[in-house]
Amino acid sequence: MKILVVGSGGREHALSWKLAQSERVQTVFVAPGNGGTALDDRLVNVEITDPAALADFVVAEGVALTLVGPEAPLAAGIVNLFRARGLKIFGPTKEAAQLESSKDFAKAFMQRHGIPTAKYQSFSDAAAAHAYVDANGAPIVIKADGLAAGKGVVVAMTLDEAHAAVDHMLSDNAFGDAGARIVIEEFLAGEEASFIVMCDGKNVLALATSQDHKRLKDADEGPNTGGMGAYSPAPIVTPSMHARVMREIINPTIQGMAKDGIVFTGFLYAGLMIDAEGNPRTLEFNCRMGDPETQPIMARLKSDFATVLEHACNGTLDTVELEWDRRTAVGVVMAAAGYPDSPRKGDIIDGVPAETAECITFHAGTQLVGGTLQTSGGRVLCVVGLGDSVKMAQKQAYETVEKIHFNGAQYRRDIGWRGLK
Ligand code: AMP
Ligand code: GLY
Fold first, then answer.
1. How many helices (H) and strands (E) does the chain have?
2. Ligand 2, closest atom to CA 212?
3. What is the pLDDT of residues 70-89, one digit of tens each?
4. Which of 112, 183, 191, 219 is buried most deeply by CB count within 10 Å?
């Protein structure tokens, strides 16, 4: 069969890399893909991004199913469009994707269905927002309602920072429509984990757990980014924590959506904060796989992912049992100079080694220019090492990172540190 993967990041490279390993898969198209998917002769980049044109392509090529990586096409309704044309696609409808595309929707939903999350209020009026900040004090968290590519959240440790964030979003219009409404919520302390499941509309299948590193610098300092690295599994999600998250967060979310008249299909990613007493709460929902979490997760998946996806599209995920590599996978993101604020493009990338059984380099912001690999975006590569412990996986990843060169490369040296404890 032929499969189409929509997107161009490290997540999409990892998904298409995994799909191409299936003996049942003839071709994996990636739209639009990146330099890494261009270099892999089992993958074919397609220069189309418009959803209707992608549907035409799928019909013309006889593509059996489509997998969508990023949130923007999901929020714009690519699943609705494909289904209306009778095409198989895995992802949430536009209505279901509101869990990610509107923080206000997600918070009201969680409150309505008793899903544990931080206390909050929504505002479009700046004066009312400032008054709420003053009444609640710092630390406090300010979030743009809409999609802001991971940049719409300010964890304000002081009142000054909180007021500045309110002004930035509501008065200066920094995020346009996405920030015309904001959510202000209680600061939650604890350890984060990414909990991702696949839903077929009836059944839920949990993927391996993982932990992302959102801050730019070692020891979780510096500005928030899209994610500087991730590892899987996350030891904080013990079997009993796993059961509790399914019972208190994932199942009530799927059931709550159904009660509200929305059938949830696609990946559901709950960003968790687990407090010192071991209580999990939901920081946010995403309706897609995480990036970079996908890279270590796909590196560990042993099952045939194309078959899993077919079951996900056919409503038969209850027949699937996933098999995982028992090793730990540590994915280190190499980002461009200037990331996250103003990533530089066009630096030449040297030294990316061939894949081994212990290390795979996934591409994100890369492109081939006349046969030369260059940087073309903020997060450039994600180097995934596999090993019998976090430490051994780190060693594999960092040995490769040190072989790769591009000017201004930024990466953290401590990916997986919480897992070392
Ligand atoms: P979000 O996009 O909502 O996941 O927020 C991005 C990051 O901000 C999260 O991964 C957390 O590190 C942090 N964050 C978000 N909400 C809170 C909160 N209520 N308390 C503490 N940190 C938060
Ligand atoms: N790694 C966080 C995200 O994909 O949203």
1. 15, 22
2. 1
3. 999 999 999 999 999 999 99
4. 183
CA of 368 to the centre of ligand 1 (A): 35
Ligand 2 within 6 A of 343 CB?
A: no
Domains and CATH numbers, the chain: 2-92 (3.40.50.20), 125-180 (3.30.1490.20), 191-319 (3.30.470.20), 328-420 (3.90.600.10)
With cut-offs at 50, 70 and 90, classify the pLDDT of residue 223: confident
- Mean pLDDT to the nearest integer, 295-322: 98
Q: In sequence order, which ranges of 47-117 are alpha helices (DSSP H)? A: 51-61, 71-75, 78-84, 98-101, 103-112
CA of 133 to the centre of ligand 1 (A): 17
Is the CB of 293 within 6 Å of ligand 2? yes
Tell which one of 141, 154, 221, 228 to mutate to probe ligand 1, the residue whose CB is within 8 A of the most ligand atoms.
Answer: 141
Q: Which of 104, 140, 153 to mutate to test the pocket of ligand 1 (most atoms within 8 A of CB)?
A: 153
The whole-number pLDDT of residue 146 equals 82
Residues 155, 165: Cα–Cα separation, whole Å? 9
End-to-end Cα, the chain, rounded Å: 44
Instruction: Give the ligand 2 atom nearest the CA of 288.
Output: 4
Query: E strands within 61-157?
Result: 65-68, 89-90, 120-123, 140-144, 153-156
DSSP 8-state code for residue 178:
G
Task: Fill in the amino acid letter for 216.
Answer: L
C-alpha distances in Å from residue 195, one per residue of 56, 287, 368: 34, 12, 34
Among candidate residues 416, 390, 381, the one with its CA nearest the CA of residue 37? 381
DSSP state of 349: P
Ligand 1 mutation target, pool 284, 285, 287, 291, most atoms within 8 A of CB = 284
For residue 171, the model assigns a pLDDT of 80
Here the tokens at position 195 are 């909990």
Residue found by looking up tokens 């609705």 in the block: 80
Which letter does DSSP use for residue 169 in this model?
I
What's the DSSP call for residue 348?
B
